[in-house]
Each structure stands twice: as structure tokens, then as C-alpha cells.
Amino acid sequence: MKVLCIDGGGIRGLIPALVLAEIELRTGRRTADMVDLIAGTSTGGLLACGLTRPGSDGRPRFGAEELAGIYLEEGPRIFRRDTLKRVTSADGWLDERYDDDGLNAALARYLEDARLSDALTDVLVTAYEIHDRFAFFFRSARARTDPAYDFPMVHVARATAAAPSYFEPARVTDVAGARTYPLVDGGVYAVNPSMCAYADVLRDGEIELMLSLGTGERTRAYTYAEARNWGRLEWAKPVLDIVFDGVADTIEFQAGRLMGDRYVRLQSPLVDASDDFDDASRANLAALRAQAETLIAGSNAVLDRVCAILAA
Fold first, then answer.
1. 10 Å Cβ neighbour count for 200?
2. Are the C-beta atoms of 126 and 58 separated by less than 8 Å?
3. 3-class secondary structure for 69-117?
4. CB–CB of 188/240 below 8 Å?
5. Which residues lie closer than 8 Å to 95 by C-beta, 6 or more apart?
6. d(CA 153, CA 158)
7. CA–CA dist 239, 234 (Å, integer)
8. What would the pLDDT profile of 219-249 be if each residue is shown by its tens digit?
9. 281 burial class (0-12, 13-18, 19+ CB within 10 angstroms)?
């Protein structure tokens, strides 16, 4: 089994998209043709859908370089707020920070009418059901056998991208019309979906490689002096960042201990690029691209090994 896992991280998904573009360049093959499962959370879930969406010829419709265009071209439209939205949302304190018009339009352009069951390679995309309170997994393997667990890819991507306080929750109905789910971003429990993927494939055979792609490691520090007198209001934003970071680090530790050198994690600290999920400024997009190029250059030997395994 060869498994690809892609973290959440909003606009920072440009980093794993460009790493995958380098892998596709070196191997001469599309990602969906080289792995048995793609697991993704949030922005990683968007990439999982895009990488496995079939074209009219039955082949993968997009390469990773094309999907990087979602971030470069669509990012500024997705993460755009006019003055009215800033005022009515109190800059995100009283309502979600962004209307979802730009996000919905981008997903419709890239995914069109494809369904989860159409995925050319198995996908697992995370979300969280807020009414009955459970972890929700979009699994193409199940979707192929049961319409009550099949969904339009546009809705899968919208649900996993519903980061609390950034976008409103998604309401998603299966194609059989059996049930509607209110969902938010699966990053609340699996910003790094590696362990979810591990559990999903464990019974199907030995894992030869699990490639886990991060979206950049946060470097923003919170000092004791700052935090010691914080209350609910002051903790509101930092606590989400810290939970996401802590979950990702814990999963990396668990996966590494279980799989040893079969688990390859490509992640780097965000030095010049912003660690915000929503900084789609031209300057930050350029910094994220530079971050990806630095990661690729510093991981040359690892990438050679990964490409050899994937292309075999």
C-alpha cells in the first residue's frame, strides 16, 4: 500500500501542491496513478478531490501544478472581505470572517459534477458533524457501494474546508437523499490525517510508504507573560492555533513510531511566509512558493527515495 496524506492549512496548501508537482515532474506520472489512497483534511481534502477527479478520458483531470492554481489564482478571491463584511462580522468575532461565494465558485470550476464515488484513487477526507457530534469521514470506497454515503465532490470539499470562524458550516446531503449533515473542518481532530489513513488501510495490506505533506509549521510564539492573564476572549484565536499544532505534532509522533522509515513527513518551519490560514496577499503567495522550493531543495534525497517507491 502506498498512501499520501495532506494536512490542513488554508492558503498554505500551496506548499504541498508544489511538492506534489515536483514529484510528478520527477516521475512523469500523475499522483492518482501512483498511490492507493489519498487522505486529506481541509485544504488537503480539496487537493485529494482535485487529484482524483476524473477527466472526460477517464484519466486524472488535474496535475498538482494545475491545482496549485487554486491557491495562486483563486486564493485572493476566496479570502476576500469587503468593508461591509468586516463591519457586520466584527472582523470575525460575531460571524464567520468570509462569505463562501468565492470558495463555492472555485470548487464548482475545478470539481464540477464529479462524485466521491468517481475518485480514480481511494480518498479519505475528514470533517466533523456538529449536531450529533462525531468525526465524519468521506470515504470513496464506501461511496462506491452505498449511495447513502456518496456525495458530490464539491460538497465534500466545501465541508472539509469549513474552518470554524473562517467559513460557515456546510450542510451536506448524500446523493440518495437519506440524510443531511452539518459539517465543519476535520482539522478540529485530524489536521494531519495520517493516523486516520493508517486505520483505514491497515487491514488491506502492508503499508510500503506513507508520504505525509505538511503545510508549514507555525513559528509564532506565545510567552508566559502574554498568556498568564488571558481569558476566553484573548484565548479564542490562539487556542485554535495551538490545538491544530498539537494535534499535528501528536499524529506525526504516533505515525512515525508505528511505521518507522515507511512514514515520510515533509514539513518545514514557516520562516518568511505567514502562518495565517487566510493570508492570500501577493507577497505571501510568493513567500509560500519560496518556502516550498526551499523544502524541495532541502529534501532532495528523500524525494528521490519517495519517487522511486511511488513510480515502482
1. 19
2. no
3. HHHHHHHHHHCCCCHHHHHHCCCCCCCCCCCCHHHHHHHHHHHCCCEHH
4. no
5. 88, 89
6. 8
7. 9
8. 778 899 988 889 888 887 788 788 888 888 9
9. middle
